[in-house]
Amino acid sequence: xxxxxxxxxxxxxxxxxxxxxxxxxxxxxxxxxxxxxxxxxxxxxxxxxxxxxxxxxxxxxxxxxxxxxxxxxxxxxxxxxxxxxxxxxxxxxxxxxxxxxxxxxxxxxxxxxxxxxxxxxxxxxxxxxxxxxxxxxxxxxxxxxxxxxxxxxxxxxxxxxxxxxxxxxxxxxxxxxxxxxxxxxxxxxxxxxxxxxxxxxxxxxxxxxxxxx
Length: 213
Ligand code: HEC
What we know:
Blueprint: H1 2-47, H2 60-68, H3 87-97, H4 112-115, H5 123-129, H6 158-163, H7 170-178, H8 198-210
């Protein structure tokens, strides 16, 4: 008899704990799903994107969308005296154009990585001004660059082939690099005005325009 009573109570305990567990779990899930989906719809509407809703730790889809929300394509105006042959600026442009974060990447001959030491005053500020985030080499070839990608067109002898021949104007190139969607709404090229200042885009253009095979 005692065994039966014990068995009964044990079973009751198991049943009660299972139900309460699953209850809390489902309430929590639906709460965060609700919040995520409301927030998601708001952002999706703002940037005009339709995508499946996935809930996750920290509403990852929502935070990624929020972070990546860069608004409609806009034609950016090229500053005056944008292109230069100044070796320091061209060196900086090369530094930004490459993925200079990787170990073993050849540092540009000119520009901060050669001219400034970590211990120099102003190094940190200068380093922040010239961020090596471009990674244009992932998609574009240029002369004397190691292992470029070929997703985008080759930019070898770009000035001679496209600018001197009037196929492209410098203004067009500036707008294209800043926000490639102005030329091709379905482009795979990264939007750059959110990462780089106009001076940094001009430095990259100076590197491209001075890059000859
Ligand atoms: C993910 C690949 C990718 C990355 C990264 C990329 N591009 Fe592009 N780029 C393209 C593609 C593809 C095109 C061709 C046009 C298009 O589809 O938008 C293009 C076009 C261009 C053009 C215009 C060529 C012409 O005259 O038609 C320039 C200039 C250019 N990219 C420069 C850059 C620079 C500078 C960077 C780095 C800041 C960069 N690209 C990063 C893929 C990329």
